[in-house]
Amino acid sequence: MKRGMLDRLNADRENKRPVALVSETGAGSQTLVYEDEQTSGEELPQEVLSQARAALANDRSEAVENGGKQYFIQVHNPPLRLFIIGAVHITQPLAQIASLAGYGVTVIDPRRAFADSERFPGIEVSTEWPDDVLGRAAPDRRTAIVTLTHDPKIDDPALESILASEVFYIGSLGSNRTHGKRLVRLHEKGFSEQQTGRIHGPVGLNIGAKSPAEIAISIMAEITEARRMAAASGGA
């Protein structure tokens, strides 16, 4: 790989910009392909260019053939992240399922009695306030947020910190009545209906879930649905 292209690829990864490195395996020529119309490097056939963008959307590197030439599409997407606000019973299975699905999971709960790292083996746990953690983390469009505490003093600051961000999914636990009160509070803080309309509340797909594990499954299913829809429209 040429030094200039390597430097640009490393810069894209550092800046969390989705990019695919397309290499023609015979000639050794290489091209960087982005989600938009920009490319860098050798010109590619339109079909290969489209396949590279599809690979970005699907998070899947692959080998393709075009015009008798072989190409390898290597996807470099920013990591998927899930921030769970509240170290409650639902959080334990949700963190495990999300990790299996390829997410880097962070559990945030300033209540130290709940945020016990022994309850979440292999998961990052923070006892800071969620708006502080999220402010440093700079959530992007490869990020999902779920609030589970039922405590406005904890959940609301988290929501306020990310409603104007590019995160692809926001979900909040609670009944329709609880969610209605949540929306009133956020509107009183100056957030628009368009912004609060991004919140999935009550959180999770309606599959009749009852137990913490079932609710976790419904939440992860809804996150997956939102992510795939975002990818189809050029997002996460």
Give a description of the structure:
The protein has 236 residues and is an alpha/beta fold. It is 39% helix and 22% strand. α3 packs across α8 and α4 runs parallel beside α5.
Q: Note poorly predicted spans.
A: none
Alpha-beta content class: alpha/beta
Kindly report the oligomeric state of this protein: single chain
Predict the CATH topology of the largest domain: Rossmann fold
- What's the name of the CATH homologous superfamily of the largest domain? NAD(P)-binding Rossmann-like Domain
Strand order of the largest sheet: 8-7-6-9-10-11
Report the portion of residues in β strands: 15-25%
Write the element-wise H/E pattern from the N-terminal end onward: HEEEHEEEHEEHEHEHHEH
Give the gist of this structure.
The protein has eight helices and eleven strands. By secondary structure, the chain is α/β, with parallel strands linked by helices.
SSE topology:
Blueprint: H1 3-14, E1 19-24, E2 30-34, E3 39-41, H2 46-58, E4 62-66, E5 69-76, E6 80-85, H3 91-100, E7 103-108, E8 124-126, H4 130-137, E9 143-147, H5 152-162, E10 169-172, H6 176-188, H7 193-196, E11 199-200, H8 212-232
